[in-house]
Amino acid sequence: xxxxxxxxxxxxxxxxxxxxxxxxxxxxxxxxxxxxxxxxxxxxxxxxxxxxxxxxxxxxxxxxxxxxxxxxxxxxxxxxxxxxxxxxxxxxxxxxxxxxxxxx
Length: 104
Hints:
By secondary structure, this protein is mainly alpha-helical. The protein has helices at residues 6-58, 69-82, 88-102. The relative contact order is 0.03.
């Protein structure tokens, strides 16, 4: 015959309740932490947009030192294409330099 001690059963039920309480607390902390991270990222997005608008409104021109190489290349291509009459000596010198560089 199997006998169940009521004290042992009460301890098991109390342990289960404590575990459920810990899981609920952990879930609450997780949701709270994820909420704070989400809120921070939303604020960061709006702050970045505001700073971008502020910079473009009060400082519309970028100095040449801050431009990236890609922007400088596209600007130099536009300038080169707009000046169709280049000095022939400059073209010959550039062509010779490229030829010498490729033959090394």
